[in-house]
Please model this.
Amino acid sequence: MDKSILYLQANERIANNLKGRFSDEGIEFIHAASAAQVFELLGEREFLLILTDGFIPDMRVHDFVQKCAREYPDVILNVCMDLTDPKYVPMIVNEDCVRKVFLPPWNIEDIVDGVQASMDEALIYRDLVRRINELKNDEKVFAETLERLKVSLLRQQYSYNKISPFFNRVLDAFLKRRQLDDSYIAFVKKACDKMLRLQTTAVFKTGELKNIITDNMNDALKNNKDVTVGEVKSCLYGDVPRFAMADLTFSLWILALVEGLKCDNAVLDVDSRYVTSRKCEYKLTVTGTKREDVSVDIQVFIANILGNIIDEYEKYDTSGGWTYELRITL
Model:
């Protein structure tokens, strides 16, 4: 708001004397000759400060101050009081909206300086109130967003329980129509259930992804104590889509699961790096010995699954075992 004052003064000559001095300071100066005119102007526009004389022709000054405080709490007042009736002075001084009281002998420069100081104080206070209100609004928006997220997470938490029965019926119907080995059916159902859980119930944080991957790989290996998870390095940071982290976690889980089936003794290490700003490479390196190959059906199933959720998938031999290389776009 521009600096502007409303001066209540019945004597037009005195008002004109002050007007020129305030104009020199770049302060808009509006004169009102009565309290009724003041309230009419306040209904039309905003003023930062009202400067009033102690003599008001149509209202007692303390009643005027009280009405301003009650009906226009954002407006501050400076009052030029005389001492003909000193009982009104403490009544006026004790009003919060009154910032300064000028007593005779009056000096124009003192009044101008006092009004400027009051206006500066008012501007600082209004800016503080504005900032507090902005913070309150931000807190309200944050609280509403947090509540929506909580509701969303609750829906997500129970979405697995809602989806899983229908999903399993469809999967069972599909598998029963084919002549498949029981171990393969069990592997497929376990993999599909894990994928569904990761996509519907897990909460992923990039800073905790290393631990999430480790825990999931250990879960895949819980039936084979001779195959263990070694070092896991996850380079993901910043804003990464949740589904990308779910796909990556599932890919490493299913590879750990199949290594647990075919290895007698092995250590699984995960390394990672950014290939581009939007593509990451994860390497699962197996160091150890292989007991047997998993069925061709399972190998084809894994290849098809990874081919659909990973951008690039490759397996190659190393000096101490073999490595899976996975690339995923974020």
